Amino acid sequence: MVESAHTVVISDHKLYYRVMGQGEPLVLIHGYGTSGYVWQRVLPYLCQNYRVFVLDLPGYGRSAAPRSWRLRAIAPVIAAWLHSLHLPPVAVIGHSMGGAIAIHLTALAPETVRKLVLVDAAGLPLSSSFPTLALRAAYSMIQPGNGRYPLQMVLDAVQPRFRVLWQTSQEMLRSDLRLELASITSPTLIIWGERDALLPIALGYALNAALPHAMFVSLSGCGHRPMLAQPERFSHIVLDFLQAHDTPAQG
Q1: Where's the AB hydrolase-1 domain (predicted)?
Q2: Nearest-angstrom CA–CA distance, 175 and 101
């Protein structure tokens, strides 16, 4: 699997991303506390059919940290980045916090996103305190059904970036993208691990209710990171969805 690595400055944000594969563009957005390497185990499958762009969000992985991390500041940066690449409308997969950003991106720049996949995604009010969420997040890292963590993801996750992590956590506690969800018309797939300890599957059902046109798939035996726990099954579900919507309608 041949990949190229890039660093670009967009709206004063220094972003790092990797590109691999051939075909229609597919953008992967990781969640809280990790980096683009959280997708590593699904790349061999996705890259067979798509040109995959794996982004490190601002302040994560190898992307520089902004002075102040604000959830609603991230999607405009990603939209500007995609426009700078002169890509056709892309498919986007967002996990957890990255799902919230993908929701905002799709509502903000609908001409940019033609298909959306939300994986154990944030975006609805969490109705939990920070200590409770912190405990759930810690357990979600070690609970059965998470798969093996790629080494580079672990190295990225243990970087000392306490300010970014604190600011991000406060932003996620306040996140409420119900207005954005109501505006989304792009074909959407929601995937959820049935054993998710951080964002329980009840949130997935609520997200599906907010997107009545979406497809919903739950994965038994999976925790918060189904792309690590069951990479082959996860990839086939995603590819079936994306390729179905890539097929021109017959008439």
Answers
A1: 26-234
A2: 10
